[in-house]
Structures are given as C-alpha cells and as structure tokens.
C-alpha cells in the first residue's frame, strides 16, 4: 500500500483543475479505503504565460506541457493530467501517456448572442477563436466571416463575447461540460460540418514509464476504448508532424471491434481541404491512423503547409 501522498501535476486554469480533480476522484473511487492521499500541484507553463500572440507563433504544442513534464522527470510530481489535444506526439524519454479517462462529447460548441448557429450569423460577422483548426473550418463554411485570434481562458473569452468584442466564439463542448457551463452553449456543431481536434474531449495521464506503483494506481481508471481511438488519432498527427501551427482535424470511433477514422488537413483560409475516411479492425488502429496521415501528406504535397 502506498503511504506517501500521490502528487498530481496540472496547469492552474479552471478547466485543468477540474480535470485533475476528476482524475483524483476516480482514483479514490477505484481504490476505496486503500486509496492513497492525493495532492494537486499547480504548475505554470509557458503557454499560460503567453497571452499576447497566437500559440502557433510561439511554438505550438508542448507549450502547455514542458514545465509539467520537467516536474515529472525530476520526481516533484508522480503523474500529470492533461487535455489530450495539448499533447505533442513525441514525449520526453522516460515518460508515456499511461492512462486515458472515458472520452467526453468531442463536438465544438457555438456560442453567440446574435445567431443560433454559425451558418445563421450575419454576413461579415466577427468570430473569435485561438484554434487554427477552428479558424480554418469557419472560413471553409463561411468565407465572408472575419475570424480573429481569441486567447485566454474560458471565462475571459466569454467576457469578451459579452462585451461585444466579437459576435460569436467556439469552444469545446467537453471543456464546458466539465466546468459545469453547458448552459452557455447556443448550439453544438455536428461532426459532419466540423471535425474535432485530435484528442478533443479526452483527458490523458502522463507518468514515468518505470514507475510501477503509479501505473498500478492508474490501471483501474484507464479506458481502453479511448486509448485505442487516441492511438489512431495521434498516429495520424505524427505522420503529418502536426502541432498547433497546422490546421489538422481527426476523429476515431469504435463500434463492435471495428474502428472508423476520418481525418482532414486545411489551409488557414479554408480554401483547400483534403479529407480521408478509413475503417478497419480495432487491432489495426495505429496502422490506420498512420496510413491516413501519410496519404493526406502526399495529397497536400510538400508546399501545403508552407504558408504557415
């Protein structure tokens, strides 16, 4: 039985803390009276400190994980809780994504006081988003709309919307639900129109590969289906060398031992899009994700992401 407290590392945003508390609660529920004491350790990351420019200009993925991973490697924390979509496809030596929690709804939420849906916004409306994927998909569906970069936590973005800085914004439904803020959603955008980011809706836990005690602690809360789906999505992203600097979308679903995968790459103005759909046995999930990434990379050609 573990006697020393287990330390969970996390960012300090309201959403990150909600995810850390969910992880703690699941561990305690799974282990009952044998559950160890759990401490939540807030770690400020580079991404949290950069609010004056798009993350795509500051280095993309890894900005929300670097300092937390350093704490893991230094053994200042025992495990780290992340939004799966923030995770680079290559992790530091000695670390791995060792557990996934059951995935939430992956759809994007449309929030606006001026229209019920994105398609109903008036011509020339202004939409705020910090995501290149969302910006590109908005421009694909509504070339007439002005899209502006919109940084900050959920609360600050909603305040800007309330103040009329923009006419609408898009946020992940999963994050709003975890914050108990589903009531702010005007409508949900269906996946046929708006493919999610790789990993959207999923919480992942990172730990040291050799830390068997932590691996045993996490085993009962690990969701195997989410891990398989995310494995395919991350393999797809890896082949495309994807980061926050590249508009990429991908989503895998599992039904009766089969996996369906859809992937997409876009130019930031939405003017060029390449899509792919594949299906196969769950045991081939990683291979399917990788194949889809290679095919889209070939279709796009060497200059597809040159504008970035």
TrEMBL record:
Reactions performed catalytically: 4 porphobilinogen + H2O = hydroxymethylbilane + 4 NH4(+)
Annotated gene: hemC
The similarity comment for this entry is: Belongs to the HMBS family.
Role summary: Tetrapolymerization of the monopyrrole PBG into the hydroxymethylbilane pre-uroporphyrinogen in several discrete steps.
Q: Which residues form a coiled coil?
A: none
Miscellaneous note of the record: The porphobilinogen subunits are added to the dipyrromethane group.
Q: Which UniProt keywords apply?
A: Porphyrin biosynthesis, Transferase
Provide the protein name: Porphobilinogen deaminase
Per the UniProt record, the source organism is Rhodobium orientis
Q: Report the cofactor remark.
A: Binds 1 dipyrromethane group covalently.
């Amino acid at each position: 039985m573990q006697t020393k407290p287990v330390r969970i590392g996390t960012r300090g945003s309201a959403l990150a803390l909600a995810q850390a508390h969910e992880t703690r609660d699941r561990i305690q529920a799974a282990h009952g009276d044998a559950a160890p004491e759990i401490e939540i350790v807030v770690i400020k990351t580079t991404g949290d400190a950069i609010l004056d420019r798009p993350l795509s200009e500051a280095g993309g993925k890894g900005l929300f994980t670097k300092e937390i991973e350093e704490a893991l490697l230094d053994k200042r924390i025992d495990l780290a809780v992340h939004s799966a979509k923030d995770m680079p496809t290559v992790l530091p030596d000695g670390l791995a994504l060792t557990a996934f929690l059951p995935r939430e709804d992956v759809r994007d939420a449309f929030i606006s006081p001026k229209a019920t849906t994105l398609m109903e916004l008036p011509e020339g409306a202004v939409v705020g988003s910090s995501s290149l994927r969302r910006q590109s998909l908005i421009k694909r569906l509504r070339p007439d709309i002005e899209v502006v970069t919109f940084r900050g936590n959920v609360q600050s973005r909603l305040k800007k919307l309330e103040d009329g800085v923009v006419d609408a914004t898009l946020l992940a439904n999963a994050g709003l639900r975890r914050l108990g803020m589903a009531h702010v959603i005007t409508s949900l955008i269906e996946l046929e129109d708006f493919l999610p980011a790789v990993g959207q809706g999923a919480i992942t836990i990172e730990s040291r590969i050799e830390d068997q005690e932590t691996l045993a602690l996490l085993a009962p809360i690990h969701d195997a289906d989410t891990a398989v789906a995310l494995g395919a999505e991350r393999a797809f992203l890896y082949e495309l060398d994807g980061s926050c600097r590249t508009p990429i979308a991908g989503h895998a679903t599992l039904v009766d031992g089969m996996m369906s995968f859809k992937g997409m790459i876009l130019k930031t103005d939405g003017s060029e899009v390449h899509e792919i759909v594949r299906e196969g046995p769950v045991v081939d999930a990683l291979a399917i994700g990788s194949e889809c990434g290679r095919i889209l990379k070939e279709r796009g050609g060497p200059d597809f992401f040159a504008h970035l």
